[in-house]
Records
---
Amino acid sequence: MGISDRLLMGPGPSNPYPEVTMALAGPVLGHLDPQFLQVLDQTNDRLRRVFATSNQLTLPLSGTGSAGMEASFVNFVRPADPVVVGVNGVFGERMCEVATRHGAAVIRVEAEWGEPIDPDRLLAAHPSPAIIAVVHAETSTGVRNEIEALGSGKGDALLLVDMVTSLGGIEVSVDDWGVDIAYSGTQKCLGVPPGLSPLTVSPRAMDRVVERPSSWYLDLNLLSRYVNDSTGGGRVYHHTAPVAMVAALHAGLGVLLDEGIEAAQRRHAECGNLLQDGLVALGLELLVKPDHRLPQLTTVRVPDGVDDAACRRELLRSYGIEIGAGAGRLAGQVWRVGCMGHTARRRNVFALLGAMKEVLGR
Ligand SMILES: *Cc1c(COP(=O)(O)O)cnc(C)c1O
């Protein structure tokens, strides 16, 4: 069975929107071709709308979501800076590792995997942190962490948020929430193949950018001169933009804006509810309490006596549906069912619920 025949429910390069496929199949422009630069400018504008920000420095970084995480720390952390990081899953853990490698004195604020992080605990963790960092949508657990309260209470700190799995799926409001640095990925709720990391940085954060970060490739001082022509002196070449991927993101954002950001969020919410109610009706137990659940990523406990891997294999082999295994310390304990971007459709939810019923013999 070819990948295009598969009905996949999860992050991955699965059946993108036809517009995205067409963009990938289109002519490959030169990276300095004025026509491409126009596509890039429009992509940045579209990203501003989706992030709900007026930040001038908004761009798709060349690299997957993890490149956005790396760029967010390497450009703003100075040696021994106190950096508060919320940890309630794999990606919060990864933030700690990245921040530490860039010299931060990390203060971890942990919550159980499956529970949200209390914003007051993040705000109280240090009297004057340089950065407060948190994952908005923890893909390893299916938990939504509260962001808004952090923006109003952050004081002098920069607020850094991982929006890899939230952007396009649930409400995101960078400016209203007082977020200073946010990054995302293309292959989650934007429904575009992996390869770019949308990033947005507030002017307040740019005032504190490290002058000569230890990464040349991710140096925002250099990247901003390529992305914007703010000085009127023209763009300065930095590296060759991955033109085909930018064209795909441009198309995917076009689909999202045509549908409407709120309509897309509603579609995710409706599919998430349908899926979660359906799983409960099959007698399965969800990891996260209703108030903190993500619609786009549902964690369901692997029932006692069921072979985790065999069940996932059967779903893929016989029904063309891929669900994720548990990640990190939840490996073997949960399944992660993604319902993101173009896969967030009622028919996909019903197909999964029907297949799950058969595979589990319920
Ligand atoms: C997927 C993901 C990442 C990493 O993105 P990659 O594209 O795999 O590099 C980071 N944070 C979160 C919350 C994610 O879901």
---
Amino acid sequence: MEGVRGPESRWSWVEVNLAALRRNTAAFKKRLERGVQMMCVVKADAYGHGAAPCAKTMHAAGASQFAVATVAEGVALREAGIEWPILILSEPPVDCVRTLVEYDLMPAVYTADFALALGEAAASVERVARYHLALDTGMTRIGVRREDAVELRRTIDFHRGLECAGTFTHFATADMLDDWDFALQLNRFTETIEALYGAGLDTGLVHCDNTPGTILHPECHFDMCRVGVGLYGLHPAETTYGQIDLEPVMSVRGRVVRVIYPNVGDGVGYGLTWRVPKKNVQVATVPIGYADGLARELSNQMDVLVDGTRCRQVGNICMDQFMFAVDVNTTRSYRPTRPVEYGDVVTILGADGKECITAEEMAGLRNTINYEVVCDFGMRLEKIYT
Ligand SMILES: *Cc1c(COP(=O)(O)O)cnc(C)c1O
């Protein structure tokens, strides 16, 4: 609806660079040997980037399967017309087995009760439900304990409504180099796969590598890699820097909705945590706040870019707005070439000219990881695909 959605109605938005997403996806696909599939992880609305448009772009660049965290995320992808295989990365509540069958979503499975309920739901409509067996090889999160894997399969395999389409595990330390715990998990995984083969059981696709695993551990690509954060142009850790070329996909921008020259000593924002120190300082307002994913702990810490120049954010970040200061007379690193005006574009995340605010910079200020920074911006801001 004109004027209600998009930046015409609110001067703040997320830009998603689908061309960069396509290049990142192709860069990962190129690393996989022929026959190794790429499962793109689009949970949490594609880490805040918008699941359906991202999935379509990824598929065009070589992805053949997709993974989400929740049943609702899987259903949303189906309703957006995504017809490729979708894995739910954990075992959902048993009450949704009919939904899984109806929408052809593959759950992770690790309990017999859930598996048999799924099989019943499928058999009752003359279908076969495909699932992936999840193995806990040492992360202590989800999955069947490796020593119980063969027995679980033997308990459920009789069911005509079930088909094992994959067997996987997840690494806790794939981003570390020469890590003993990683080696241990990988050993346990291969041993369990061999035990399943030895018992005459079909494992389906064998997979374990996430983004850092895919980059640093090609020896365990097996049949498929589950790539997430790297697709969005973010490195999972410093250990992958220089190992693959990635372009950040998300930028966050807004426009100045108000700007004044306050009096010296005037306070800014809730609690008046910043005060105007001298004359000729502008304070400008941008309509993005913590309900849009701009974490409040960034208050009085972060910079924004105007015309490729850094400006300091000042005052506590509000729910829907924040303020920044422009010291019109500064000459060092904060160096505005001109006063800010109503309507000026402000970059909160991403590049502007030669300057760039990275998700890593923001994560450092928040004491978190780049993953959380981009997920958070998915909350409320409109997305523009370029
Ligand atoms: C989130 C997730 C991934 C993707 O992880 P990245 O580090 O973003 O590549 C892969 N597998 C599982 C089970 C996950 O939960």
